[in-house]
Amino acid sequence: MPTPDDTTAGAPDVLPGADAYGPVQRRLLVSAVRCFAANGFHGTTTRDIAGGAGLSPAALYVHFPSKELALYEIVRLGHRHAYDILVAARADGPSGPGERLAALVDAYTRFHAQWHVLARVCQYDLGALRPEHYEEVLRTRHETNEIFRVAVAAGVDDGTFDPGLDVRRVARALISLAIDLVRWYRPDGPETPEQLGAFTAQLALRLVARPGGR
Amino acid sequence: MPTPDDTTAGAPDVLPGADAYGPVQRRLLVSAVRCFAANGFHGTTTRDIAGGAGLSPAALYVHFPSKELALYEIVRLGHRHAYDILVAARADGPSGPGERLAALVDAYTRFHAQWHVLARVCQYDLGALRPEHYEEVLRTRHETNEIFRVAVAAGVDDGTFDPGLDVRRVARALISLAIDLVRWYRPDGPETPEQLGAFTAQLALRLVARPGGR
């Protein structure tokens, strides 16, 4: 069985907002993120998580009585953080629909590059959550996606974007462009999160542009 | 542990080109695709695969002496099939760079929707291959991606597409749009593979269009 993702083995930044946790809980969550990202939820044991944190399995149970509860904490944290970043990007003053959409796509893309290990778990291990936890996370996902739909619709409504756009499907495509990079992004690759964010924002403006007028 | 993806439990079509295998081998591979897609490579045991095919673990070993060899066969088959579909779409007579790129994106998107269970394994479990198998699959991936790069470059070179396009990154974005649907596509959703293919092809033409001229 492979060890957790070597590319992030030395990085302390697989967990945004880690200060909200005590030191032991934080070590356990960081280990769990790495184990899930490397081997999947079903391929990870509680012993793997505890061992990665330098603790005994018993210590894990004090903080997370089940492996699923550790996943739930991680997935909830990741989704909430992504949502907060979008709310901040939207509020950050860009005035027109084009600027606002570009800012959202830029921020969402950078999030997925910067936190790619965490984001991989959030996207690929979602189905392992218990139904009530899954439902809760789905609500956050819906609110997140709605931010993109509202931003696309605003530009359609005021005539900045192509009036013939299928708002829901175009928003879904923009979200795909930002999220798919967790499948292939590596921090030692040629592009920084900032470069990826700026480029994807440019693509977003191409996708929504009025025919014949940019 | 969840059972393999219920949405495909009754579907015989998780394995394209299944006729190339004998009946037992085919049952084993179909079971392996479903197990890997549902629980990941590391979360699947050889017993799961054999049991899903109604066979004993010993029967599995006759055909696939290791779990990795079953994954290798599946991932190789999936990548080869996707490549063949693109080669066929390219040869299928569309005359201009726009039509040709649209045909490629359409075909690649339909492939990922139609064979979404297999494609999920091909995308998400790739890292579990042995290095020499991984290298071989990477070569097919490179050839596949190259088809898109060549198609984008052809339209840039002859002036059909925006001359300022970053060919490599735009091709990557088109590939992302086609592949990302394995993350969220469900066969009982509102869109057919054909509808998804046609829509994504439209998006592709928007991404490459010359400013101010469509």
TrEMBL record, chains A, B:
Q: Which PROSITE patterns match?
A: HTH_TETR_1 (PS01081), HTH_TETR_2 (PS50977)
Cited SUPFAM superfamilies: Homeodomain-like, Tetracyclin repressor-like, C-terminal domain
Q: Which InterPro entries match?
A: DNA-bd_HTH_TetR-type_CS, Homeodomain-like_sf, HTH-type_TetR-like_transc_reg, HTH_TetR, KstR2_TetR_C, Tet_transcr_reg_TetR-rel_C_sf
- Domain of life assignment: Bacteria
- Summarize which parts of the chain are annotated to bind DNA, as ranges: 45-64
Pfam annotation, one family: TetR_N
Q: Which UniProt keywords apply?
A: DNA-binding
* This protein's record includes keyword DNA-binding: yes
MF terms in GO = DNA-binding transcription factor activity; transcription cis-regulatory region binding
Keyword Electron transport carried by entry: no
Q: What is this protein called?
A: TetR family transcriptional regulator
| The organism of origin for this protein | Promicromonospora citrea
